Amino acid sequence: MVGLVSSPGSYRSKNVGVLAGTKVKHLAPKPILVPELMENLFKWLQKEKELHPLILSS
Fold this sequence. Notes:
By secondary structure, the chain is an alpha+beta fold. The chain has 2 helices and 2 strands, in the order E-E-H-H.
């Protein structure tokens, strides 16, 4: 199959972004920052008690 992730379950190791032609519309955080950002997200999700679960999962 074409286009599948070569290392599922791993954080990315390359820069990624969204382009419109040659213009950068969004540049994601650098790969070195992803593990810490994900850890912060999971901690926040565990503490968040006010938002509906459907909102949290979106």
